[in-house]
Design goal:
alpha+beta; 3-stranded antiparallel beta sheet; 42% helix; 28% strand
């Protein structure tokens, strides 16, 4: 199996030193561990290193070394156990790159991206939270739901997490959340946000975390309020106009009398 891992025959390996088949960047660490083993500083060691195959490819290996002393030996022998971990290292590297890529996206997003535990506490929050609420990510991680959400929004988000915990405990399908929530800002004001929350589960169905995204919709809410005010004013003016048309058509005289001045005006 060792010949298969290293891509060499037993005859090729015989007589070679470990340094001759080890990646140059990994030689020093192995030599230092061997020196400490020979001096009695450590009873053995485990090392992750790279071997070089004859075709130039690399093999990642987990190497375990322990001394073996026989009565007939003047010098110590060493027992090495080599495990090929190339595939595992490749998967770990791909995962590391993927995590770094997603963290880069989250750290530079305009929307606030966060992860939360089952109690609704933040475990990660993107730097954009400071622009939204004025709190740094570090400050936000220490906040409770009561510190984040205002008014009825607090009741809404607490109800969602209560339902999420109950569904997980009962084995029921879990639901995502989407709604408009009012969040507290550091300067004492509040900001309206569109919030989505998506629970993430592991392959075996156990809870991992809640992925949440918050988007500032305060400008939209402001425009909606202006639109409602304009519609109300238009409806009021329309009602007054209808009343005037009705009076004109009726042919009746209508007047207002100000009892303070004794004057009246005709309509």
């Amino acid at each position: 199996r060792l010949c298969e891992i290293l891509g060499r025959s037993a005859a090729e390996l015989t007589g070679l030193s470990p340094q001759q088949i080890t990646h140059p960047d990994d030689i020093a660490e192995g030599m230092d561990l061997l020196r400490r083993l020979n001096s009695g500083q450590i009873p053995g060691y485990r090392l992750t290193k790279r071997y070089l195959r004859p075709d130039g490819t690399l093999v990642w290996a987990s190497l375990t070394c322990a001394p073996v002393r026989l009565e007939t030996d003047d010098a110590p022998r060493y027992l090495y156990i080599v495990e090929d971990i190339t595939t595992r290292r490749q998967m770990e590297e791909q995962l590391r790159i993927s995590e770094a890529r997603h963290r880069l996206i989250a750290d530079n997003a305009i929307d606030v991206i966060a992860t939360l535990d089952l109690a609704g506490r933040y475990t990660y929050v993107s730097p954009s939270v400071e622009k939204l609420r004025g709190f740094t990510p570090e400050e936000t991680l220490r906040q409770r739901q009561e510190d984040v959400f205002a008014g009825a929004s607090l009741t809404t988000i607490q109800a969602y997490f209560n339902r999420l915990r109950a569904d997980l405990e009962a084995g029921r399908p879990i639901q995502n959340f989407r709604g408009e929530l009012e969040q507290r800002c550091k300067d004492g004001t509040t900001v309206w946000t569109d919030v989505s929350a998506n629970p993430l589960l592991s392959p075996d169905g156990s809870f991992v975390e809640v992925l949440g995204v918050s988007r500032d919709i305060s400008e939209r809410k402001h425009h909606e309020a202006e639109l409602r005010a304009a519609e109300a004013k238009a409806a009021r003016l329309q009602g007054e106009q209808r009343w005037k048309v009705a009076l004109d058509a009726a042919g009746h005289g209508v007047w207002d009398w100000d009892i303070r001045t004794g004057r009246f005006e005709c309509s």
